[in-house]
Design brief:
This protein has 5 helices and no strands. The chain has 109 residues and is mostly helical. Helix 1 (2-20) packs antiparallel against helix 3 and helix 3 (30-54) runs antiparallel to helix 4. The chain starts with a helix and ends with a helix.
């Protein structure tokens, strides 16, 4: 199932960033700061991939993610390998929440 695959990729990305802790690496030596950049760059590219995979299911969310990433127009192609469309030094835009928090009272209604 497509959505299960998307959620699995997202979960792996979350595990990767948590395990590598780029926020800690940034406080380290030059090599650790470079590693932090690699971790963040890979995760940004994973977010870009997720935006492409989400497009058939949630096109508006896909568009929002790509806008926040300032992703190039040619990202919307699925290949058999991860393609890093966001190269070293790529600047992302202002991050914003993609979903609103649902309050318990609202859910019960």
């Amino acid at each position: 199932d497509g959505l299960t695959t998307i959620l699995n990729i997202s979960r792996l990305g979350n595990q990767y960033i948590q395990a590598n802790q780029p926020w800690v690496l940034l406080k380290g030596n030059e090599q650790e700061r470079a590693q932090a950049g690699t971790v963040v760059g890979l995760c940004a590219n994973m977010a870009c991939l997720l935006s492409v995979l989400l497009q058939p299911y949630m096109p508006d969310i896909s568009t929002q993610i790509q806008a926040q990433l300032i992703a190039p127009a040619d990202v919307n192609v699925v290949t058999d390998k991860l393609v890093c469309h966001l190269g070293p030094g790529h600047k992302i835009g202002q991050p914003n929440p993609l979903f609103e928090k649902l309050e318990a009272a609202l859910v019960q209604d």
